[in-house]
């Protein structure tokens, strides 16, 4: 608070920043006592320092914000329009593996582009209203907004970092085009030159229509850009809109000075317009802060782009409260929360530091592990403890365990962890003993010559031995409508997307453990769950099958197959011009029904469903080794009986990429340990890489 003037300052372009208490200037004199001249001068100096203090505090603000309601979303859109920055929103859930995988890249991009964009996140589990408003059907989904309007052509789902960067760059270019305005004076001069018969009243109408469409008192934003383009099409040349400066008046307004009657006693953070302060005389040379009245100082600061708050507003903002002063100005301390809240600790795992390969090809790694599920991370622990300094190449978060929203109950020693939590602990364990990590996908391998060559993220890595642990991906039914509605109600990850269809009927296809787990997850939020299974009994473990059979919200259709998926195409999605759209019941999914058929009678039936989750097994990820290693008819890597050795000496396979029988997290971890032991033995027998192993790894020395 500023003791004598009674208000505080914050930058116009940085709403939502919670300033530490040291940013306020507390009174330095006792109540009731008149300040001395020295004290008065000191207070004036402290007030001047508030601007610098605010700037320093603002610089520490989080680069990614949380949107917890539609009201928060409106504020984000308004801030985007006012600041000229485009808005990116990540719709995610903490249980979604791809969401966790892309989270570090999203945060890094937010830091890189903080001067050009506003980055925000919506947890669809807790903010269903915003997810429903934009009809989000899968996670992660990224939406881009320019000038407060959605850009459907930029929207995408999935964990593609290159896609994210590409569309962010396009959105930035689009934002630069539309953060402009056409002043009435500029429009008048244009018509005077190219259409002199146009009356002043007609020009006024054009300007007012543009301002109305822009929902402002100015012709600005994309509306101004569109008007300029239309005029160029009509007259062969159009007016060039002026670039706006956040928080500052336009060039024409600056020339004309403040308009009469537009003075304002207060200012709102949520407002996109800035009323001019009462006209004040320009300060004469040599004047100090002491020569300004409170109102004159307020007016001068507002004219220079600062937002001036009352003492009550500043107090509410700094304490996180929502008092009357704060509510009157649309300022609430709990809006637009910073990403690193305590309750979001699990949202982004703390990943081990990334290792980057040396530029020279003379160097070769002893062991490279491709994949970071239970098999790959177990192999990393064993190889690291053997002093092989393994390099793990995989996305930041990997493995089928990432899709498990229920607790892992069949892994010894693990009593109450979810799949993502277990994988996070495995990564920490491998990092502890010296494993290195390169985050990304492997693009190509060459096992024809030794050392082997692996290409990943534009890097070429040579390896003495390779452990392949790339796991398996979900199988699909390959029936009519499946591809069309994938991402629009048809999914393979109930923990990722199930919550988006809360209070709606859902279908699960399958009869194994994965199907049982999906059904139990969906039963928490869906109005009903129907399991479709082609046999007359489940293949799942008894404990999971019994839970499903006893659950009151889960129905089962035995001896039934899916013939087709049907619904709306295209889905009802917000159009470009929409920023607010009322949500209609049931419009959050394009899938509406599932056509099923009885195996015995051939009779067909239609089930009403908002979502369908396919859980019929997995296919091995062996596409990168096609033509390099021997695989069986189902695509699994063939290993020598009793070992993890493949058809190429020095290359080993572990986990679901080679296991078509057990496919459990614990068996994958066991085979990963076997692969590391096999690789260590193979290297030792040939004397490869042993000369470099003279001491235990640093982490092991510390432990000893």
Automatic annotation (TrEMBL):
Low complexity biased stretches: 259-275
Superkingdom as given in the UniProt entry: Eukaryota
Thioredoxin domain mapped to chain residues: 29-173
Acidic residues bias (residue ranges): 332-351
Gene3D superfamilies found in the cross-reference section: FAD/NAD(P)-binding domain, Glutaredoxin
PROSITE patterns, alphabetized: PYRIDINE_REDOX_2, THIOREDOXIN_2
GO biological process: cellular response to toxic substance
A GO term for molecular function: oxidoreductase activity, acting on a sulfur group of donors, NAD(P) as acceptor
Region named Disordered: 231-289, 317-351
Protein name per UniProt: Thioredoxin domain-containing protein
């Amino acid at each position: 608070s500023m003791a004598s003037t009674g208000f505080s300052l914050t930058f116009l372009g940085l709403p939502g920043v919670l300033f530490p208490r040291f940013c306020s200037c507390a009174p330095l004199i006792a109540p009731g006592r008149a300040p001395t001249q020295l004290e008065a001068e000191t207070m004036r100096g402290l007030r001047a320092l508030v601007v610098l203090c605010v700037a320093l505090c603002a610089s520490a603000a989080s680069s990614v914000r949380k949107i917890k309601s539609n009201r928060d979303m409106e504020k984000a859109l308004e801030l985007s329009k006012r600041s000229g920055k485009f808005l990116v929103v990540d719709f995610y859930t903490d249980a979604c593996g791809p969401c966790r995988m892309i989270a570090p890249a999203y945060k890094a991009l937010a830091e890189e582009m903080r001067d050009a964009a506003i980055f925000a996140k919506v947890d669809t589990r807790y903010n269903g209203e915003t997810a429903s408003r934009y009809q989000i059907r899968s996670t992660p989904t990224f939406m881009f907004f320019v000038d407060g309007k959605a850009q459907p052509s930029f929207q995408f789902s999935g964990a593609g970092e290159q896609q994210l960067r590409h569309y962010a760059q396009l959105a930035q270019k689009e934002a630069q085009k539309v953060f402009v305005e056409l002043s009435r004076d500029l429009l008048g001069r244009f018509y005077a030159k190219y259409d002199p018969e146009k009356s002043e009243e007609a020009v006024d109408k054009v300007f007012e229509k543009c301002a109305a469409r822009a929902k402002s008192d100015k012709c600005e934003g994309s509306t101004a850009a569109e008007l300029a383009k239309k005029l160029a099409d009509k007259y062969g040349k159009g007016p060039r809109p002026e670039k706006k400066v956040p928080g500052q008046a336009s060039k024409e307004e600056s020339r004309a000075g403040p308009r009469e009657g537009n003075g304002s006693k207060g200012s709102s953070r949520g407002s996109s317009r800035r009323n001019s302060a009462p006209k004040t005389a320009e300060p004469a040379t040599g004047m100090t802060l002491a020569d300004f009245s409170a109102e004159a100082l307020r007016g001068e600061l507002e004219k220079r782009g600062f937002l001036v708050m009352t003492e009550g507003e500043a107090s509410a903002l700094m304490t996180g409260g929502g008092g009357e002063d704060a509510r009157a100005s649309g300022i609430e301390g709990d809006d637009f929360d910073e990403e690193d809240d305590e309750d979001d600790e699990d949202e982004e795992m703390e990943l081990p530091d990334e290792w980057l390969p040396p530029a020279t090809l003379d160097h070769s790694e002893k062991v490279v592990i491709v994949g970071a599920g239970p098999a790959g991370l177990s192999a990393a622990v064993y190889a690291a403890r053997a002093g092989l300094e393994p390099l793990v190449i995989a996305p930041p978060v990997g493995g089928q365990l990432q899709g498990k929203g229920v607790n892992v109950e069949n892994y010894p020693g693990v009593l109450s962890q979810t799949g993502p939590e277990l994988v996070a602990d495995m990564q920490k364990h491998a990092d502890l003993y010296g494993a290195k990590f390169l985050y990304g996908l492997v693009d190509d391998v060459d096992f024809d010559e030794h050392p082997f060559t692996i290409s990943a993220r534009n890097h070429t890595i040579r390896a003495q031995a390779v452990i392949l642990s790339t796991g398996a991906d979900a199988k699909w039914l390959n029936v009519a409508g499946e591809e069309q509605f994938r991402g629009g109600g048809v999914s393979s990850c109930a923990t990722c997307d199930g919550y988006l269809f809360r209070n709606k009927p859902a279908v699960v296809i399958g009869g194994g453990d994965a199907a049982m787990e999906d059904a139990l997850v969906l039963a928490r939020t869906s109005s009903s769950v129907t399991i479709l299974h082609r046999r007359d009994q489940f293949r799942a473990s008894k404990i999971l099958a019994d839970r499903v059979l006893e659950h009151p919200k889960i129905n089962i259709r035995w001896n039934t197959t899916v013939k087709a998926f049907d619904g709306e195409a295209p889905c009802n999605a917000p159009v470009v011009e929409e920023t607010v759209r009322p949500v209609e019941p049931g419009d959050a999914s394009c899938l509406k029904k599932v056509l099923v058929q009885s195996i015995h009678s051939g009779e067909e039936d239609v089930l009403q469903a908002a979502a369908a989750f396919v859980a019929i097994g997995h296919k091995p990820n062996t596409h990168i080794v096609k033509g390099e290693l021997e695989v069986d008819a189902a695509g699994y890597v063939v290993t020598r009986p009793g070992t993890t050795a493949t058809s190429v000496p020095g290359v080993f396979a572990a986990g679901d990429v080679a296991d078509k029988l057990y496919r459990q997290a614990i068996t994958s971890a066991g085979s990963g340990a076997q692969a590391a032991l096999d690789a260590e033995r193979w290297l030792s027998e040939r004397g490869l890489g042993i000369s470099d192993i003279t001491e235990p790894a640093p982490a092991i020395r510390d432990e000893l």
